[in-house]
Amino acid sequence: MKLWLRRIHLSLALISGLFLLIVSLTGAVMIYAKNIQHFIEPEKWQVTPQTRSIHYDALIQNVEMQTETKSHSFLCQNKKRMLHGNSG
Q1: Does residue 28 share a domain with residue 8?
Q2: Which of 1, 18, 20, 26 has the CA that lies 20 to 30 A from 43?
């Protein structure tokens, strides 16, 4: 009887310990996900400045072509007002 209880206790402890280890490791990966991504692929996280600016209408057309949806409006930060694009 005593040996049976020890084996059940050991198996339950190993199963719960494995569960806690998996939860801890996945939590650590989730917390440091951005840092890991920066370390693995740094070229995807750097922006190269452009020498010329794009006109607002061309920008709206580029976004609409890439997303295949019509943009209704966007915020222009340097003029601090809402500009309306083609709403279709």
Answers
A1: yes
A2: 26
